[in-house]
Amino acid sequence: MLDIKLHDFSKPVELTQSDIPTPKKDSVVVKLEATPLLSYTRDYLQGNLPYAYPPMPFTPGTNAIGVIHEVGEGVVSLKKGQRVVVDCNWEKSEGVANPERVLIGLTGISANSQPMLEEFPNGTWREYGDFPAQVIMPIEGVDDIPSTQLVTLARFIVPFGGLRRMNLRAGETVVINGASGYFGSAAAMGALAMGANVIMLGRNAEKLQKIADSIAPNSKRVSVVGLSDDLEADVAKVRALSSNGVHKALDMIGQSNSAHSTMVALNSLNPNGQLVLMGSMLTPLPVDYNKLLLNNLEIKGNFMYTRDDYLALVDMVKAGLIDLNKVEVTSFGLDEIEQGIESAKSNPMLSNTVLKLG
Description:
It comes from Vibrio ishigakensis. With 358 residues, the chain is an alpha/beta fold.
């Protein structure tokens, strides 16, 4: 089979020939069909990110769509030939308070996750992959969606985990901070599908409006706010867009050097409101202790998503509530990895770069 290996941060990845893996106990081998390329792939491959990398050489790559090729000893419910999602978010199934966790093919998450990185170091940039059975989810009822489009689920599931964590309800108003980004735009689509009203925050109002027009043309349920540097003025703009106020906010800002937009989202909330943090920030968040207390506000950190979130997302796609075709897909083969990386780096708004694996 063909696969891609990272040997050294100072060298390009290599396309190589390897044997098809044999499944270990409690694992599955999947014939992989499509996997997304992340916008920061180049920085990742050059070692510029503060990640706990798998031992080199290894095959990068996170989530994927594929078909089960072979199951290992101890696997009961998964069967050869099933179409499945490969979810890189692997939490060790041990009965402890804080189980170890990794993102397969990307990074360790918990402090003692190195043994997990060594056990399954390789991700999805290959034609066949071996993975713990725990991260494999059968998907039915979506046979009409090609794998290159269906793998867009990986873009939606991250913010969807945050929307479910806040228990977003139909009719509520939610602010999406960072709504023009890779995950933020998907968050806006997910919130609309859940029946909420959406206020999209960002620096570029024109870009936000283009996304809004694409995901919900002529809808009164989605609004945009282009931010300035005036906190009070920006909060007033947000509050003016909802007669019932803002019930919840999801922060998907990426690698921000400023807390301004997050504070706009927080300060826009009604009493008893929630802010769920899922982005990344390089500066402290200047929270007003008394304001939180007096208004019964909640701030929640939410890392990734649960298995139940993933299954719920697939159900929403099957029901036609989320249209994956609104995301434009550009695909590349394994032998075009360099072009794919550059395409992912410049992904415009509602677009996805995908490696087509088989």
